[in-house]
Amino acid sequence: MAKIELLFWSGCPSHPEALELLRRVLRERGIAAEVDLREVRTDEEAAELRFPGSPTIRVEGRDVDPDGAGAPARLACRIYRLPDGRVSPVPSREQLEEALR
Amino acid sequence: MSLTLADPAPSFTLPGTDGTEHSLEDYAPSDVLVLVQSCNHCPYVLAWEARMNAIQRDYADHGVRLVAVSSNDASRYPEDSFERMKERARDEGFAFDYLYDEEQTLARALGSERTPEVFVFDRDRRLRYHGAIDDNRDETAVTRHYLREALDAVLEGLDPPVAETPPVGCTVKWR
After folding, report:
1. Which residues of A touch B171 (CB under 8 A)?
2. Which chain A residue is nearest to residue B173, measuring alpha carbons?
3. Could you tell me the residue ranges of all domains in chain A?
4. Hey, are the CB atoms on B170 and A74 less than 8 Å from each other?
5. Which of A64, B130, B152, B157 is the most exposed place for a label (fewest CB within 10 A)?
6. Which of A11, A74, A79 sits opposite B46 (nearest CB)?
7. Residue B30: its pLDDT value, please?
8. What is the nearest CA distance from B118 to chain A, expressed in angstroms?
9. Percent of chain B with pLDDT over 90
10. Average pLDDT, chain B
11. ipTM, 2 dp
């Protein structure tokens, strides 16, 4: 069973959408996974967890957006890029699918 | 607590990324003033920013001024510093004024909570619409253009069809 971690900060409204997309992709691909939801509440927790923004999704410890994983840890909404270049507050379906291969 | 409908626009004098000071009185010639709580670092702002630019361009000849204001604490969010605001306004070719509310006084007076969050004031500078720009951050999925609908109504002396919507975006980063 795949181990997936979704870290979020409640000050950003995007994590329910990210969780819904993640669960949809898992369901469509028939992947059994345990999704561990973890709220990041303080700057100290963000630093400890290397949390570059909300939401952050890690599959078996690997960030679904490796390019953004190394950004400074902080309580903020995370910026993702869709395949067409547009900005999004949640990872793209393609990023999730790639991470789950 | 946010302004409520019909409340007057709060007074302000703030520096803009264009290098000049801007006050509420400076916008007096405009029939409608749109204040948008904004910033540099928020993905929701980035997703809506092009629409803000398009609205200013589309309504400029109708007496509408859109003014974006960033009040975020730049000590914790360096992308929201005044210098970075200037860079963004220049690089993105903003058609609207972009003001720096370093002391957060305008954000507090408006009662802003999110970025982006829109406040539309009529000729008498009374609040007529408050909330989101439209109903979807994905431009291709928008079904209701709340801000454009409000502008069209107010310019015709009518009430906006929808006067309040919940703003969707990042929280204002208070000091």
Report:
1. 11-12
2. A76
3. 2-99
4. no
5. B157
6. A79
7. 98
8. 17
9. 99
10. 97
11. 0.92
* Residue B71 burial (C-beta neighbours within 10 Å; 0-12, 13-18, 19+): buried
Q: How far is B39 from chain A (nearest CA, A)?
A: 12
pTM here is: 0.95
Per-residue pLDDT for A35 more than 80? yes
- Condensed to tens digits (0 to 9), the pLDDT of residues B22-37 reads 999 999 999 999 999 9
B137 touching A (Cβ < 8 Å): yes
Q: Which residues of B touch A79 (CB under 8 A)?
A: 41, 43, 46
Identify the CATH number of the domain defined by range B28-171.
3.40.30.10
From the list A11, A74, A87, the residue facing B43 with the nearest CB is A87
Full DSSP string of chain B: ----TTPBPPP-EEEBTTSSEEEGGGGTTSSEEEEEEE-SS-HHHHHHHHHHHHHHHHHGGGTEEEEEEE---TTT-GGGSHHHHHHHHHHHT-SSEEEE-TT-HHHHHHT--EESEEEEE-TT-BEEEEE-SSS-SSGGG----HHHHHHHHHHTT---SS-B----SEEP---
How big is the A-B interface in CB pairs under 8 Å? Answer: 33
Name the residue ranges covered by the structural domains of chain B: 28-171
CATH (one of 3.40.30, 3.30.70, 3.40.1710, 3.40.50) for A2-99: 3.40.30
